[in-house]
Amino acid sequence: MKKITVDDVSLRFRMYHEVATSAKEYFTNLFRTTKRTTYSDFLALQNLSFSISDGERVGIVGRNGAGKSTLLKTICRIYEPSSGKVSVHGRIAPLLEMGAGFHPEFTGRENIYFNGAILGYSKKQLRAIEQEIVEFAELEEFIDTPIKYYSTGMYMRLAFSLATTVHPDILVLDELFAGGDATFVRRGRERMYNMIDRASVMILVSHDQSLLRSLCERFIWLDRGKIVADGDVSVLDQYNAS
Amino acid sequence: MSDKKIFQYLFELYEFRFVLQQLVRQQLILRYRRTVFGYFWTLFNPLLMMSVTAIVFSTIFKMDLKTYAVFLFAGMIPFSFFSASVVQSGQSLISNEGLIKKIYVPKLIFPLGVSVALLIDSVLAAAALFVIILVIGGNLSAALFFIPVGYFLLFMFSFGIAMMMTIGTVYFRDLQHVVGILMQALLFLTPVLYKPEALQGKVAWIIALNPLTPFIELFRAPIYLGVFPEAQIVLKAALLSIISLAVGLWFFRKYEHRVAFRL
Q: What confidence score (pLDDT) does residue B26 get?
């Protein structure tokens, strides 16, 4: 049973106004009688509670800065909530932003292994899917070349192919991506839908109305860190009307 | 922190062992990829540095070059490992920022990867040095079997400090510059280039209090003197490494959750 439970989760962000605090500033601030704060707190998520169970396809909508991406990152354990609890059953994987974990000096193959390892795959499992990734990316000739020599298209194809070959139970998507030449985009879309079909749970953050309507049946509307509404497609209509 | 939690923590680390393996590989291979001598630089580098130091200081101290070289090598092996792991771990989270902000990975894995890679470097460099030591007349004795124990204790001690350094550098980026200078100072305040007895007078207490001193002895006794280190020194080193590891782990766990916000 794959399930996500978000229980009374708040997340406080500390915004630092300076580029970086240095040790010198830290220590001089210690001795200052009137404290000059170099940061301000703001609540990115405020007492959110909901749960998502097996088979659900959830779209998260809201204006810029509503906390959509922060919520996704909290579910993926990248951010630890300031209070409350997130529990996730099942293997969860954010769709890595195009080649986020790529190392330019590594060859394509080495990058497949490194990223695959991070996504929770064993060496054996990776060996089994390696060929599929390479073939889909159409990189048979260049797979043992360091990826810093790749063209943008090659790089994108490898990233996309890797991201869509791994099959997490819980799929988390932050805005869909498109890249490469026209045929690749078409093949890519097919593969994308295929991956979504195979995932037990999908969470999608997007501004693309038609995409949201075609992929999701439940919508959570966030505004300034709070849930405004949570329900079927009528929530999306409400949001659009607002 | 309850016992159960710490076991969970370590188990999670174990589950990510394949990532750790990849990180170590990354560390070991990348530096020397596409250089003519490749990985051999790892061995040549300390060798050349130490040879120059040996020539200069044996002259200053008016000691026989060969004897001094063995003495110096034996002290440099643990010191270099300590220094490198503390300095390089400091960078480990910062240089993997892109990853840490995109996907969940137990963060301890980054400084651990650095330390393990450096341990491999150090063991291989030590083996190469040892061949040279044998050629110029070092002691081949049963005491050498103590070296793995020495490495084990040294690793725990260094890794404890490295964990604190890793978190510290995320909060205060200045540390990465300060630590280099500190390590340079520490080299002179640790009996690596000279015998512990040589620094008398006002600064002798520094040597006595320097936590690195017993670790140098763990390597110097078997390699230079061909004897097992005294039990008292081994105990002291063991105690220091346990404290360092415990404090380091506590500190790391306390602050790692906030790292994603500070990077």
A: 84
Check if the interface score ipTM surpasses 0.85: no
Put simply, the answer to whether B172 touches A21 (Cβ < 8 Å) is yes
Q: Taking CB atoms and an 8 Å cutoff, what residues of chain A touch B105? A: 118
Angle A93-A94-A96 from CA coordinates, rounded to 5°: 120
Q: Where does the pLDDT of residue B30 fall: very low under 50, low under 70, confident under 90, or very high at 90 and above?
A: confident
* Whole-prediction pTM: 0.86
Query: Domain check: are A131 and A72 in the same one?
Result: no
In a domain, residue A99? The reply is no
Report the Cα B135 to chain-centroid distance in Å. Answer: 26
B171 interaction partners in chain A (CB closer than 8 Å)? 21
Q: Which of A109 and A101 is assigned the larger pLDDT?
A: A109
pLDDT tier at B182, thresholds 50, 70, 90:
very high
A187 & A115 share domain = yes
Q: According to the 3-state scheme, what is the secondary structure of chain A?
A: CCEEEEEEEEEEEEEECCCCCCHHHHHHHHHCCCCCCCEEEEEEEEEEEEEEECCCEEEEECCCCCCHHHHHHHHCCCCCCCEEEEEEECCEEECCCCCCCCCCCCEHHHHHHHHHHHCCCCHHHHHHHHHHHHHHHCCCCCCCCEHHHCCHHHHHHHHHHHHHHCCCCEEEEECCCCCCCHHHHHHHHHHHHHHHHHCCEEEEECCCHHHHHHHCCEEEEEECCEEEEEECHHHHHHHHHC
Statement to judge: residues A211 and A191 lie in one domain: no
d(CA B50, CA B76): 8
Number of domains making up chain A? 2
By CA distance, what is A123's nearest residue in B? B18
Q: Name the residue facing A76 among B19, B103, B172 (closest C-beta).
A: B103
DSSP SS3 for B107: coil
In the prediction, which pLDDT does B253 show? 92
On whether any CB of chain B is under 8 Å from the CB of A50, the answer is: no
Whether A115 and A168 map to the same domain: the answer is yes
Of B103, B175, B260, the CB nearest to A96: B103
What average pLDDT does the segment B49-64 reach?
A: 88
Domain residue limits at A28? 3-90+205-241
Say yes or no: A64 and A123 in one domain: no
Residues A71 and A144 in one domain: no
Domains of chain B, residue spans: 3-262
Same domain assignment for residues A81 and A153? no
Contact A101 B172 (CB under 8 A): no
The percentage of residues in chain B with a pLDDT greater than 90, rounded to a whole number, is: 46
Residue with tokens 């001193």: B213
Model confidence pLDDT, tens digit, residues B3-26: 668 888 888 888 889 999 988 988
CB contact under 8 A, B172 and A26: yes
> Does residue A23 belong to the interface with chain B, where contact is any CB pair within 8 Å?
yes
Same domain, yes or no: A116 and A74 = no
